[in-house]
Amino acid sequence: MAKFFFYLALFLASLVTAFVAHDSTVGDLANGAVISLIIPVADCAIANRINVRHLWYSVRYARRDVRISAAYLFRIRVDGKYLLVQGRRFSQLQPVGGVYKFSSSGRSFLSNLGARDDSLIPLDNRSINDLRIKIKGSQIPKFYAWFDSRSGREDSPWREFHEELISTGLLPSDKFPFTFQDYVKREVDPIRYSEHAESLEILIADIYELLPTPTQEAALRQLASTNHPDVSWVTEETIRRRGVLPDGTVLTVAQHAQRII
């Protein structure tokens, strides 16, 4: 962001100079600078588009409440099919994963930011310290800089993997003493009004892809063969079609499952 603001300041200064001194040598030099800075400014804006967007939000929605929910999801794929599990709060099939947790230092930072606990999901032993909060729009850039620093918050997808697949007995713990995964991408949705939350909302999702060992892959295939009621293995097409199968059967596939494709 520092480089972007540097180039932007030079661009604006050159633009003003070119306008004021348009009939002079200085004006000609400023015109040249404007032209030469267009590409660097555009490149920096594209590279920092999320930060630039959040900066704009902080101005436009400065005094309004904004709900932020930050989660991670696992892409678990075997033989061309994706693993979805039955949701614990909502009756839907969804990827393994959940909302990030924050630590005591994270709570201190969020408190200083004026963050409040989200009221959409009931606060209980399971949801305590979930990174679902409400802040004023003016604080969005500070929140995102903190979140991106990974300080004071959960920084591994292991917890939800263990809770949803290991502790439930769906996968054997001796075959999964650890997981290895690739970080795939981060999706940050544009701000929108959520009727459910009755608030402006930004959703953040980090996507990881499980890289199973041969033994772990065999265990996943074994799970696929059991037809367990809490697990479904579905194709990409099924996820894109929100669970509508060619034979007319409809599975309740969560919309956010499309993030793992």
Give a quick set of tags describing it.
261 residues, alpha+beta, four-stranded antiparallel sheet, 8 helices, 38% helix, Nucleoside Triphosphate Pyrophosphohydrolase, single chain
Please write the string of helix (H) and strand (E) elements. HHHEEEEEHEEHHEEEHEH
CATH fold title of the largest domain: Nucleoside Triphosphate Pyrophosphohydrolase
Percent of residues in β-strands: 15-25%
Major sheet details = 7 strands, mixed
Low-confidence stretches: none
Mean pLDDT rating: 87
**Backbone structural class:** alpha+beta
Spatial extent as radius of gyration = 23 Å
Helix content: 25-40%
CATH architecture verdict of the largest domain: Alpha-Beta Complex
Query: What would CATH call the class of the largest domain?
Result: Alpha Beta
Tally of individual domains: 2
What distance lies between the first and last C-alpha atoms, to the nearest angstrom?
Answer: 30 Å
What is the helix tally? 8
**Which word captures the global form?**
elongated
